[in-house]
């Protein structure tokens, strides 16, 4: 009996030590699971069973278990019952991970939204347009190309191909439709960057502005410009790794105010000489956007009135953190068709249905390669200048997100291609090559 007690005590001590050393990781795992579940169930309208079997079914997230409270509109993620995290859904703001001191009953400011236009055909409204048959498109080749991207390995959820403003192909995985909202992950960064282009066009912002934060005024960080931040080339320290406890995962799953995280980071390089992809930078930019408005309500409204609702992306919800700042790095949800509208806005050099939201110069600026990025990155936009997709044009650019969320803009072909899914394993280069080759000059 004494030996058994000793063994049990040793096991307990070992478990205690394991939990102690792994607590930060468990905290992030439970946080991811709770947040993703709350968004999937209450924002995207999927079931808990579907979410657990698909969106949360990958290692190590699949060691968590999830519960939902439909009355409270909350989700709880738990790791072996040792640690629990909670996320709540708020109408108009999406889901947010909360701490124990967060007052769920406290009213939150929400963005004012405009009514969707369900009469005007896509892209300027949400109604279906009449099918257009283009004589120069080989539809058999196009169909064969699309079929290669829909299989169990690729886990594609939606694919929309827009040519000359017309949807020439649209397909969805089982359980998904044109009404299904998809999480864009880092495609949200391109939303954030576009807002700066709109403010610049309105004469309300100068991307060469420096001395951005009081915390930087007494050291060389005061020389960092908005331009440097837009290009991910500030020289600030940041670790963007989703497979470990990193700056990115700690920010997304532990922080109350995500716009402040990178403010306190030191230099590890020099502005304009040290490209480093950083979600912290995009949320820093969201915080800078807040300073351009007198009230928080104006800040919340502008994302929709200035861009999202302006171009009819009415399905889109950009989620906020506990401080009610938009998570400009990661948390925009929208249908594939609405993601395509953002691509079309850039394809048309900032003009939308006769109105200029930004000018062609901004498109040129945003798609100019960032120094030291090897032609991969512009201003919150990914580029093909470095030949990442060898069979696509070098002037193609894209909005990209975690697990293979993509909006590709091909100016020379008058094309926008949207692909959403659960994995980056898809052979996107072959997909793009096939689509391009199916259209004859």
By DSSP, the count of extended strands is 15
- The total of helices stands at 11
Mean pLDDT: 93
Largest sheet: 6 strands, antiparallel
Question: Strand order across the biggest sheet?
Answer: 6-5-15-14-13-12
Strand content: 15-25%
Helix % is 25-40%
- What is the straight-line distance between the termini? 84 Å
- Given helix and strand content, the structural type is alpha+beta
**SSE succession:** HHEEEEHEEEHHHHHEEHEEHEEEEH
Dominant shape: globular
Low-confidence stretches: 9-23
SSE order and pairing:
Elements: H1 2-43, H2 48-53, E1 64-69, E2 74-79, E3 83-90, E4 94-98, H3 139-147, E5 156-163, E6 166-172, E7 182-183, H4 188-201, H5 226-230, H6 247-254, H7 279-291, H8 296-308, E8 317-318, E9 332-334, H9 336-347, E10 351-352, E11 355-356, H10 360-366, E12 382-383, E13 397-401, E14 405-410, E15 415-421, H11 428-437
Antiparallel strand pairs: 1-2, 2-3, 3-4, 5-6, 5-15, 7-9, 8-9, 10-11, 12-13, 13-14, 14-15
Task: Characterise the protein shown here.
- This protein is α+β, with helices and mostly antiparallel strands.
- It is 32% helix and 16% strand.
- The chain contains eleven helices and 15 strands.
- A hairpin with a 4-residue loop joins strand 1 (64-69) and strand 2.
- Helix 1 crosses helix 6 (247-254), helix 3 packs antiparallel against helix 11 and helix 4 runs parallel beside helix 7.
- It starts with a helix and ends with a helix.
- The model is unreliable at 9-23 (pLDDT under 50).
């Amino acid at each position: 009996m004494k030996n058994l007690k000793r063994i049990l005590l040793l096991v307990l001590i070992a478990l205690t030590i394991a939990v102690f050393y792994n607590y930060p990781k468990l905290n992030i795992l439970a946080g991811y699971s709770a947040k993703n579940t709350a968004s999937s169930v209450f924002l995207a309208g999927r079931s808990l069973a579907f979410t657990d079997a698909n969106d949360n079914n990958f290692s190590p997230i699949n060691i968590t278990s999830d519960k939902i409270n439909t009355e409270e509109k909350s989700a709880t993620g738990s790791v072996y019952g040792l640690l629990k995290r909670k996320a709540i859904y708020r109408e108009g703001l999406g889901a947010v991970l909360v701490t124990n001191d967060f007052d769920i009953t406290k009213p939150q400011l929400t963005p004012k939204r405009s009514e969707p236009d369900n009469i005007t055909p896509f892209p300027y409204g949400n109604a279906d347009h009449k099918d257009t048959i283009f004589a120069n498109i080989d539809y058999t080749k196009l169909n064969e190309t699309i079929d290669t991207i829909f299989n169990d390995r690729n886990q594609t959820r939606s694919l929309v191909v827009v040519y000359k403003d017309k949807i020439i192909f649209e397909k969805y995985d089982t359980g998904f439709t044109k009404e299904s909202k998809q999480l864009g992950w880092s495609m949200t960064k391109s939303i954030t960057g576009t807002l700066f282009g709109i403010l610049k066009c309105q004469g309300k912002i100068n991307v060469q502005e420096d001395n951005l934060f009081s915390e930087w005024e007494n050291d060389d960080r005061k020389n960092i410009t908005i331009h440097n931040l837009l290009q991910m080339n500030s020289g600030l320290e940041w670790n963007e790794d989703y497979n470990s406890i990193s700056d990115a995962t700690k920010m997304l799953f532990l922080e109350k105010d995500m716009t402040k995280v990178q403010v306190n980071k030191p230099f590890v390089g020099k502005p304009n000489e040290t490209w480093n992809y950083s979600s912290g930078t995009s949320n820093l930019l969201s915080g800078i956007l807040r300073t351009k408005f007198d009230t928080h309500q104006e800040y919340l409204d502008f994302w929709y009135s200035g861009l999202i609702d302006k171009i009819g992306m009415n399905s889109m919800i950009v989620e906020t953190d506990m401080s009610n700042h938009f998570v400009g790095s990661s948390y925009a949800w929208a249908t594939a068709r609405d993601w395509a509208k953002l691509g079309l806005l850039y394809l048309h050099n900032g003009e939308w249905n006769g109105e200029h939201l930004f000018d062609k110069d901004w498109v040129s600026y945003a798609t100019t390669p960032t120094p030291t990025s090897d032609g991969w990155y512009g201003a919150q936009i990914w580029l093909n200048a470095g030949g990442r997709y060898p069979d696509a044009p070098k002037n193609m650019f894209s909005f990209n997100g975690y697990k293979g969320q993509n909006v590709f803009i091909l100016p020379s072909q008058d094309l926008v291609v949207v692909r959403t899914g659960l994995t980056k394993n898809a052979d996107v280069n072959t997909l793009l090559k096939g689509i391009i080759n199916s259209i004859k000059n």
